[in-house]
Amino acid sequence: MLENEVQEIAHIDLIDEDLLQKDRTKGIVHIYISPEDNPLEAVAFLKERYAENHIPYEITLTGCEEQDWLNNWKQYFHPIKVGEKLLIRPTWRDNVNTENRVVIHLEPGLAFGTGTHETTRLCLTALEKYVTDNSSILDVGCGSGILSVAGILLGAKSAVGVDIDEMAVKTARENAVLNSVSDKFIALHGNLTDKVSGKYDIVLANIVADAIIMLSKDIRNFMNENAVYIMSGIIDTRVNEVLEKISDSFNIREKFLENGWCCLVATAK
Known about the structure:
Blueprint: H1 2-10, H2 17-20, H3 39-52, H4 66-70, E1 80-82, E2 86-90, E3 102-106, H5 118-130, E4 136-140, H6 146-153, E5 158-163, H7 166-178, E6 185-189, E7 200-206, H8 209-215, E8 223-235, H9 239-246, E9 250-258, E10 261-268
Helix pairs in contact: 8-9
């Protein structure tokens, strides 16, 4: 059953009860296509594929204001307190009570990393415990740049972020400027560490279990002596697998858990 699979993967009830009662023999798919990309070509393509596979279908075209789906989510994104020291402030929220916390001004754009997800919050909570005034940070899969920016605002001397998504790299650079830390931040477009050089005091990897396992094979080459390796984005059902894969190379110092997600803090053996 679909609801059982969602519960197993996400550990929460994501499906509205009214939706569960609806007819499951039919599906509705919404596809958003920019007008300049010629939606009629997409319709022709879909019609051919449905007919080829003998799938009954009905296609309707309606206009959609770009702001409806690009910006409406912002109304649900409020300032967020993270850990003991941080507060994430969306740029469109004014008159925020900072409560003397370090404020991260954030415009996430289309990149991952708003602080609303457990994996990012766990990583930030771990980061604030280990960052010092002398820390250099490597942020693998930097997304919006929230972790790198937070590290610098907490006192780190420098941060390098890398992401495979060019839009994420652009967003990370913009957020560094927004928080007046661009002089200490470098964003690279690359896959894991293929464009990275140097050694760092803190390595952040808020990605997924498979990518962490792959990254961990040679990440020690980028770590200073006594460096801390913070891994997040690991669902609880795969924690043991990750621990087994990295056990020959790393000692686990701490484990943070929230709503079925895990963040590990490790040092090299």
